[in-house]
Amino acid sequence: MITIGVIGVVAALTIPTIMYKHQKSVSETAVKKFYTNINQAVLMAETQKGEERITWSVTGTDLYDNYLKDYLKVLSSDYNTGGSSPQVMLYFSDGTLALIKSRDITFCVNQKSYERYKELKYQTGNCMMFGFYPSGGFNEDCLEDNYYRKGVVPYLNGTSSYCSDIENHDFAAMC
């Protein structure tokens, strides 16, 4: 009985850590996959349409409809064309989703994470923002260096640590 009790206590202490590490690994993998897929879509659209991305219209719906739609595999999409910034929500077959709103792209590992993101109005561990700024026009060197003509990159808040994370593609630090 004592042995079984000790095993139970050890299991109770280690299972939450194991589950956390697994969830973190799943989230990091989903973010890396999305990052790769959306940038491949940007490159393929630029190549096949024969148009430099610096001339692309970047409202959410225009970006998706005119450039990315043919190159991203989505399960379904929902359009919100009201307001000053038309946007589109993309649902992927692995349960992840992305909101393309103008130059900002919010990626979440699942619907529950997105609902929490909307409620809290900031990035959570399971949602991450990306930026797509093909035409430049930034005041800060970090923004200019990391956004202009780089494709879709993790969102910056103007701090040097985020700049470092982007340069090293350190998604673990950003998640």
Features:
single chain, about 180 residues, 6-stranded antiparallel β-sheet, alpha+beta, about 50% helix
What does it look like?
- This protein has a six-stranded antiparallel sheet, with helices on both faces.
- Mean pLDDT is 78; it is low at 158-162.
- The chain has helices spanning 2-49, 60-68, 111-120, 141-147, 160-167, 171-174; strands spanning 76-80, 87-91, 97-101, 104-108, 127-132, 152-154.
- The protein has 175 residues and is an alpha+beta fold.
- It has six helices and six strands.
- The chain starts with a helix and ends with a helix.
- It is 49% helix and 17% strand.
- The longest helix is centred in the N-terminal third of the chain and has 48 residues, at 2-49.
- Strand 1 and strand 2 form a beta hairpin.
- The protein has one domain (2-125).
Draw up the topology in text.
Blueprint lengths: L1 H48 L10 H9 L7 E5 L6 E5 L5 E5 L2 E5 L2 H10 L6 E6 L8 H7 L4 E3 L5 H8 L3 H4 L1
Antiparallel strand pairs: 1-2, 2-3, 3-4, 4-5, 5-6
The domain count comes to: 1
Any idea what the shape is? elongated
Count of individual helical segments: 6
| Poorly predicted residue ranges | 158-162
Could you give the distance between the termini?
42 Å
Summed up:
This protein is α+β, with helices and mostly antiparallel strands. It has one domain.
